Amino acid sequence: METKVIDPPETIPIRPDEDFDHHRLATYLHGKLPGADGPLEIVQFAGGHANLTYLLRYQTVEYVLRRPPLGPVAPGAHDMAREYRCLSVLYRAYPLAPRAYLFCDDPSIIGAPFFVMERRYGTVVRRVIPEKWGGGKNATVNRKISEVLIDALADLHAVDPASVGLDSLGKPQGFLTRQVDGWMARFERAKTSEIPLATELHRWLKEHMPPSPKPTLLHNDWRLDNMMLADDDPGRCVAVFDWDMCTIGDPLCDLGTLLTAWVEEREAPAGSSGGPVVMPSNTPGFMTRAEAVARYGMRHNVDVSHVPYYYVFGLFKMAVVVQQIYHRYHLGQTKDERFRTFGQAAEFLFHRAHEAARCGTV
Known about the structure:
Strand order of the largest sheet: 1-2-3-4-6-5
CATH architecture of the largest domain: Alpha-Beta Complex
Distance between the termini: 32 Å
CATH class of the largest domain: Alpha Beta
Largest sheet: 6 strands, antiparallel
CATH topology of the largest domain: Aminoglycoside 3'-phosphotransferase, Chain: A, domain 2
């Protein structure tokens, strides 16, 4: 008997260990944002595995608050100041980026740095295509979703960082080398057991590194569940979220990250690895990874012949991210039971990366 996969609700009551003093926050925000002068109701967004996101409801307006996860975080990760810097200006050149209004680095308010941004309205597709759009059976809709996922990424990479004052956001020279070494260092800090395959993959990535194309703005965590689609049109994007790792560097890193969650019809069902949510891309009509790469290449006018390398690197990065999340669970820094199996999921992803390196295709 097949078990039906159901996405969680958009918002939930705040998880007890992820709550904070609502009155202290309301007092801090009073007068700092339009409409932030009345009763405040706070609920938590159910999605996501790292940064914590909350909905702030006032009488006449809603905002979204973002903060890092509980416990120590990896250096450079979950950077609320960086995300605020990006979102406070990027909307001017890239309307899919929600506007950030306020940043607070005082941990006495909610226990960590945070920022507040505008609330966008639409549908976030996670493990399954919503029933209103055919529940995964409408090939035309599925195709539209896969196309807008690629087109919105290519459009981001076409933005001139200098046009919004973000040209100093990163250091594109030597970017890919630093990324490969940096992610291996993150794994070393987060490992809970020895995984020789990780070391082998790091060596492969160093030895097979291709020349990078012209640097662009990078989102650095481009996935379908970081995108919001219009309720009345699944082929139109209304927002892209989770910009805390935004930088300037090799644009094919974004494409490689995206491909790690892009399972195809012949492959394992979405979510079967036990790790973070992957896309419902194994539905009829959804582009294959190869089709997605070709569409990106045409849309952004860039050589995509080296994308298989970035696919391997994307899987390697995802394995490390999953291991970092499991490390927090292993140390008791989070009690979220969704993370119990993430240790095995990280090993699974390292094996997928090894197989992708052996095959040389996406």
